[in-house]
Write a structure and sequence with these properties.
about 160 residues, 4-stranded mixed beta sheet, 3-stranded antiparallel beta sheet, 4 helices, alpha+beta, about 20% strand
Amino acid sequence: MNQIIRVRLTWAEIEECGHWAVKRSVENYRLERSHRYGFIGTGLDNHFHGCLGEKAVAKHFGIKLTADELGKVDVDPYEVRATEYHSGRLVLHPGDRDHSPFVLARVHELPDVLLMGWIMGNRGKRKEWWGECQPEKPKDRPAFWVPNGELWNMADLEAREDVR
């Protein structure tokens, strides 16, 4: 059974994530960036959820995270995928880093964020996981949707020296 890590964010940290999400969205509009991987929408919710997940991972691992650092590796050396759905999966795209650990953060229980598990990018890009299979978004863009039961234990990630 995968050990779930519960990270409690403060309301100030959650508000800070809201500011970062707006900053990301405005910057994308200003630079006329298009959404990646066929995403449709403003992206503001996705930026907010992503920031919450990144903040929780950073807090859990004791890594300082600032708005200026966003946009590179999410929480160096960890990549973070966040979902607002109770049964949401970790999503990977073909261009995602193969040799980076990807952590799934569920943000549906604020102020708590649940770190559900992780997988290395190359291990999550399995042909049988490719498609439009996110249960909550049946018409969403194609991607690799890693089944929750296939995520590795967070305690194993904390013990690995090769990803830090």
